[in-house]
Write a structure and sequence with these properties.
By secondary structure, the chain is an alpha+beta fold. The chain has 10 helices and 10 strands. The chain folds into 2 domains: 169 residues, Yope Regulator, Chain: A (2-Layer Sandwich), CATH 3.30.1460.20; 108 residues, Yope Regulator, Chain: A. The chain is globular and about 90 Å long. It starts with a helix and ends in a 13-residue tail after the last helix. Its main location: cytoplasm. Component of the Arp2/3 complex.
Length: 334
């Protein structure tokens, strides 16, 4: 019941912390990268010797490095999950950060997928401008992970076009979501797979209620959301290599349908691309929260039952009842 209630109140939105519904909303900017950039900007022109390594959910990791001989050049390397590197990842990052501010590094270090060089001398001098600059650098994950979605949504905002077959985009090792362009819409389908069978059970309940929450009057302008059980994949997946039921989609299939009104501005496109690219992490987080909540409730219930049993014990006092006390330590001889 708690999972159903949480799903009914939830909705995708933008923001760096939990929304009014209490559901987590992933921040588009990585805090560790943002803080490191601000610290480096504050130390210019001398700069700081920086070698920051940070990891994020879904297997993403970063290396932010600044050498003493060039304090205004920030080297940013990004490692993506194996097999989940989108085509043109580096180009998408350069485009999002700005070609005048960012460029591809001459070589990509071993173990990383993208290497960039950020020119800190191009950052604004005022505090607010520097905050926005650091936030933009910290949003490199959104630029890379959302590139395939951004391309489809920008085409939709420009007027759509002819429909295409669903295209698979790898975003986790061995897992894909699918983008299908229509004449006036874009459909994004997620086969939800979980290693733990219990997570799959909770996910089915959560996602079913999540899709039904879309029917609320307050969410009438939101993108369409539908959920299909593992044994009934959506028709948009016909002709693709999407998993069919079983362990490949034990949480079912979630489909989002976006129209031009949902991508009317660049800000809407960025928000939609980011929320869709991190949807699996959004669901996984709330499944873990659900399990933690249920475990806590069960422990409290067990403690309450143990306390009730302890209070129900009757202290036996033979002196008060007039019973003769039983002899102790007597040797019985036949």
């Amino acid at each position: 019941a708690w999972v159903r209630g949480l799903a009914r109140r939830g909705r995708l939105g933008a923001g760096p912390r939990a929304g009014r519904s209490g559901m987590i909303l992933w921040d588009v900017s990585t805090g560790a990268l943002r803080d490191a950039v601000l610290a480096q900007l504050a130390a210019l022109p001398k700069g700081l010797v920086t070698d920051l390594r940070a990891a994020e959910f879904d297997g993403w990791s970063y290396n932010l490095r600044c050498e003493p001989e060039a304090p205004d050049k920030l080297h940013l390397c990004v490692a993506l999950p194996k097999g989940a590197e989108p085509k043109g990842a580096a180009e998408a990052a350069v485009k999002a950060l700005g070609s005048g501010v960012c460029a591809q590094a001459p070589a990509v270090p071993q173990g990383f997928s993208v290497a960039l060089v950020v020119d800190l001398s191009k950052a604004p001098s005022d505090d607010e401008g520097r905050q926005q600059f650091a936030r933009r650098v910290g949003s490199v994950r959104s630029a890379i992970a959302g590139a395939p979605l951004r391309e489809a949504l920008e085409a939709l905002a420009a007027g759509g076009g002819a429909g295409t077959q669903a295209m698979g985009v790898a975003y986790r090792p061995g897992e894909k979501y699918f983008i299908k362009r229509g004449a006036d819409s874009v459909t994004v389908v997620f086969p939800m797979a979980f290693k733990d069978a219990n997570d799959g059970v909770i996910a089915r309940t959560f996602l079913k209620e999540f899709s039904e929450a879309r029917r609320a009057q307050a969410l009438g302008a939101a993108p369409g959301v539908s959920w299909a059980p593992p044994e009934s994949p959506p028709l948009e997946l016909d002709g693709t290599d999407a998993p069919r039921g079983g362990a490949g989609a034990n949480g079912g299939y979630v489909s989002f349908v976006l129209f031009q009104r949902h991508v009317g501005t660049p800000a809407k496109i960025e928000a939609a691309a980011w929320h869709l690219a991190t949807f699996y992490g959004f669901v996984s987080y709330h499944i873990k929260c659900s399990k933690g909540h249920m475990h806590t409730r069960m422990r409290k219930r067990v403690q309450a039952l143990v306390g009730a049993l302890e209070r129900s014990q009757i202290d036996y006092n033979p002196a008060k009842r007039g019973d003769k006390p039983k002899p102790k330590n007597l040797l019985h001889i036949e």
